[in-house]
Amino acid sequence: MKKLIIVIAVLLSYNASFGQLFTKKKVINLENMDKKILSWGYYLGFNSYDFKFEYEQDLDDILVDATTGFQVGLTGDLRINNHINLRFEPGVYFTTRNLRYDESYFAGQNFNPSDLLRETKSTYIHLPLLVKFSTNRINNIRPFVVGGISTALNLASNEKNPSDNSGGQFRMTSNNYFYEIGFGIDLYLLYFKFTPSIRGVFAINDEVVRDIDPNSPWTGNISAMRTRGVFINFTFR
After folding, report:
1. How far does CA 151 lie from the centroid of its chain?
2. What distance lies between CA 234 and its chain's CA centroid?
3. Which of 187, 182, 119 is nearest to 156 (CA)?
4. What is the fold, at CATH topology level, of the domain defined by 32-236?
5. Which H or E run includes 14?
6. 63-66 and 38-55 strand pairing
7. Over the stretch 174-198, which tens digit does the pLDDT of each residue have?
8. What is residue 157's DSSP assignment?
9. Number of helical (H) and strand (E) elements in the chain, helices listed first
C-alpha cells in the first residue's frame, strides 16, 4: 500500500509539473505577430515521394525505391480571423524514385537486367493553396492543422520526349494536381516565428504517359499511377 501511495504521489507531482509547463504565465514573444493581415516567410524541408499503382492484370506489384529529396520555397499568409489563415506556399521540390519491375512483366520476351529498372527524377514547381486552422495560443506555442489543394509542374517529366521506355525513357505528365493535409506547431521565438510541420500529399490525376506499344511491359499493365508523398517543412517568419 505504501508503494502504491508513493507511485500515485509521484504521478500527481509529474502531472502538476507537466501542466504548469503549458499553463504557467511566461514572457510572450512576438505578441502582435498574428494580428498582421499579410505576412511572409520562407521554408526549407525534406520530402519522400512514392507512387500508388492500379493495374490492368494481377501481376506482381511494381516496387518503388523512394529516396529523400529536399525543397525550398516562400510562404504567404493571409489572416481571415483569429483561428483561420489562407496560405500560399510556392516552392521547388527535388526527388528521385526508382521503379523495379518483376520478370513476369517480360514473359515471352527478351530483356536485359537494365529493363527491370526505371529511374524517374522529378523537379516540381509546387503551388499549394492551403487553409490553416489554429488553436488558441498557449504561451509561445500554437498547434494547427492545415489542408488544401495544389498543382505542380514537373520540369523533368519527359512528357514530350519522343523516345519511350523502349529507348530507356519513362515518361510522366508535366501538370499534376493534389490534395494535401497535415499539422504543425508555431513556436514564437524572441525574434522570429519558427514552424515545423508535416504534410501528406496525394495526387488526383493519372501521371503515367504510356508507351506507343499498348502491350509495353513498362506501361501496358498500369491503369493508373498517382504520386503520394510526405513533406517535412521548417518555416521561418
Report:
1. 13
2. 13
3. 119
4. Porin (2.40.160)
5. helix 2-23
6. unpaired
7. 999 999 999 999 999 999 999 999 9
8. -
9. 1, 10
